[in-house]
Amino acid sequence: MSATQFDALAYSALEERGDAVLLLPLGATEPHGPHAPLSTDTLISIGVCERTAMRLEGELDVLVLPPIAYGVTRYGAAFPGAVSISEATLSALVTEIRDSLAGQGFGRIVLVNNHFEPEQVRTLRETGIPLLDLTRRANAERLTEEFRSGSCHAGRYETSLVLADRPDLVSVERMRSLEAKLVPMPAAIAAGQTNFLAMGMDQAYCGSPAEATPEEGEQTFDTLAELLVELIREVARS
Ligand SMILES: [Zn+2]
User: Is 8 inside any structural domain?
Assistant: First the structure.
């Protein structure tokens, strides 16, 4: 554990740090292909938060809160491992954490989300808490081609990120054997499809996981940290 982790500290180390920016990593526990862990989204959020806290060392006090590893995740329900909570529960969890911290004088919190089911993103937006929202066009445009295509669940984009931080959790042999699957999820969702199987994701992935590399993952983490640094600077100014 690094010193940037909120819950790695003793309470005495938190005194007079009310100006700190607290990052709340959010993900989901849901199927990510036959090759990647259920924790993929959560791991990505944690990886971005940790890199960002390190980058801002000496400029801003940034602490990473314990992650919320459960999200609103219904599309993968046909597969084992999809554990969903409701919008109301997610909203209550996030706002109660914000309020509890605010009560102790921590007024700056930023949500860092990497699970993109529309109901998850909408719920987080509606809390009004600053959110690293990668589904916004201005952010998505700076990410990889596969991410921008929307055909990116447990594909090259996400699997590369996991390979960068937790290669031990990826079955690389399995990954290399997976054929590319083009499923533009945002369009499928807009057309009313609400489960992976109906979208043609018979192994709970789309995109090109076989092309994933840790190098691409590290590069994407760089970009994600850049986006988060920009958001944190905005929050710190306000
Ligand atoms: Zn994911």
Answer: no
Residue 99 belongs to some domain of the structure: yes
Q: How many other C-beta atoms are found inside a 10 Å radius of the C-beta of residue 125? A: 15
Is the whole model's pTM more than 0.70, yes or no? Answer: yes
Using DSSP bridges, classify how beta strands 131-132 and 108-113 pair: parallel, antiparallel or unpaired.
parallel
- Please tell me the distance between residue 158's alpha carbon and the centre of ligand 1 in angstroms: 6
- Each residue's pLDDT expressed in tens, for the chain with a length of 238 residues: 456 999 999 999 999 999 999 999 999 999 999 999 999 999 999 999 999 999 999 999 999 999 999 999 999 999 999 999 999 999 999 999 999 999 999 999 999 999 999 999 999 999 999 999 999 999 999 999 999 999 999 999 999 999 999 999 999 999 999 999 999 888 888 888 889 999 999 999 999 999 999 999 999 999 999 999 999 999 998 8
Q: How far is it, in rounded angstroms, from Cα 134 to Cα 89? A: 22
Q: Give the CATH number of the domain where residue 28 resides.
A: 3.40.50.10310
Judge whether 12 lies within some domain: no
To the nearest 10°, the Cα dihedral for 140, 141, 145, 147?
0
| Tally of domains within the chain | 1
Residue 37 C-alpha to ligand 1 middle, in angstroms?
10
Task: Kindly state whether residue 13 falls inside one of the protein's structural domains.
Answer: no
Structural domain including 64 reads 18-232
User: 6 CA to middle of ligand 1, Å?
Assistant: 25
